[in-house]
Amino acid sequence: MTEDTSVIAPKAGWHIWLVGILALFWNAFGCFDFVMTATRNEAYLKPYPQEMLDYWFAMPWWVWAVWALGVFGGFFGAAALLLRSVWAVRLFALSLLGAVISLAIGIMATDAPKMEGAEFFPYVIIAIALVQLGYAWWQMKRGVLR
Question: Which residue ranges traverse the bilayer (predicted)?
Fold first, then answer.
């Protein structure tokens, strides 16, 4: 008589698809914004005031790297979530770290030009990154992510 000791992973609910697809689109826009800015796409950057563009293009390479880690970490975290990989937690954590460091840089940069109405947006980004990380953590603890 043999005993089956294999563990059956819990089924992922329909919500993993909803959260994963929404996160993928949200983070894809962040990646698009980064690429369009980094490549200095004229049509994309046209609405921004020149002083904002000058500030962005004068940022040191490591600030760009933090931004890239944040947006691409979120994008690949969403893809990992859809693939039910435990890497989603690590990648969403990296994304949150990038967002928090970017916010800190923005707060400390006294010479940064301000865009009216955009002061709250970094906090929205952090809140969404926290939700993504929290959801992935929950799915990992449930055993859905492997």
Answer: 12-35, 55-82, 89-108, 120-138
Contact 89, 137 (CB under 8 A): yes
Q: pLDDT tens-digit profile of 77-122? A: 999 999 999 999 999 999 999 999 999 998 898 788 877 777 889 9
Question: Is the pTM here over 0.85, yes or no?
Answer: yes
Closest CA relative to residue 86, chosen from 11, 31, 145 = 145
CA 54 to chain centre: 25
Tally of residues, the chain: 146
For residues 95 and 73, give the distance between their C-alpha atoms in angstroms, rounded to a whole number.
5
Say which residues have a Cβ less than 8 Å from residue 3's Cβ, sequence separation at least 6.
none
Q: How far apart are CA 69 and CA 95, in angstroms?
A: 6
Given CA atoms 15, 21, 24, 25 in this order, what sign does their dihedral have?
negative
Cα gap 17→141, rounded to integer Å: 18
Phi, psi angle pair for 23, to nearest 5° = -65, -40
Helices (H) and strands (E) in the chain, counts: 6, 0
What residues contact 94, with CB distance under 8 A and at least 6 apart? 69, 70, 73, 77
